[in-house]
Amino acid sequence: MHISTTSWRKALAAGAVGLAILAGAAVLPTSVTQAQGGPPDWSGNDFWMPGWMRHRMWRHSRDPEMRARRERHWTFMHGGIPDAYESARSKIKVDKEAIAAGGKLYAENCASCHGKTGDGDGQAGKSLTPSPALLSFLIERPISVDPYLLWTISEGGKQFGTDMPAFKDKLSRDEIWKIVAYMRAGFPKVVEEAK
Ligand code: HEC
Question: Whose CA is closest to atom 13 on ligand 1?
Answer without folding.
Answer: 132
